[in-house]
Amino acid sequence: MCRIGLFLIAAVLVIVETTCFVATTPKTDYFITNALVVHLGPAARILTEEFYSSRTNFITFQIEKLKTTLSLESTYPGNNGNASSNRRLQQMFVACESKSGKVVGFAEVDARPLGTGSSTDPKGLNRSYMYNLAVDKKWKRKGIATELIRECERFVSDMHELCAENRLYLRVRSCNLAAIELYTNLGYSEVDPSSISLTREDINSNSLEEGELILLAKDLPMDAECRVD
Length: 229
Description:
There is one protein chain. Helix content is 36%, strand content 20%. By secondary structure, it is an alpha+beta fold. The protein has a 7-stranded mixed beta sheet with strand order 1-2-3-4-5-7-6.
């Protein structure tokens, strides 16, 4: 009787564990989440490969990766060097492999000013922009970039209490036709920098990419009570 009882209990546990496992199994082989400090090193590698691989050798690649890591750490949301009031205006996201948790993609969104001049735009609204979007070369063409973009869009749309402008901006090389097509399919269109009191020099400042950059934007949904007339 004892052996039979133990067998039945074990069988029930197996069924329960299997059911839980199936219920929590991701629908894809990756997931999107807020970046942790431990993710910044792997993210820096992906960014360096995306923006510097064609311009570096083994030694200079390591130098650029270190510089990128330090840059991410210095701007990480909640870092002691960042004002607490900006924590909800900025976020970093990573795409991770479902099984191992390995970082395979990265993106940042920031609602602080785009330009280097005035701290606010003429209407007194912070402008949200996305940057540092990159996917591991072995994980491209799996929809990861699209999901990272959508996560950035959700972050901006959810900032209801801040009543920020309900538009997300990004910069992209004018010659990067594949990226422009991706953004266009997601609802982005080119905007004139002067329409938001910026210059082309502002758009191209501090860029990691070669070639002229253009500014794209997409209007996002926002609750009616948070709209600014």
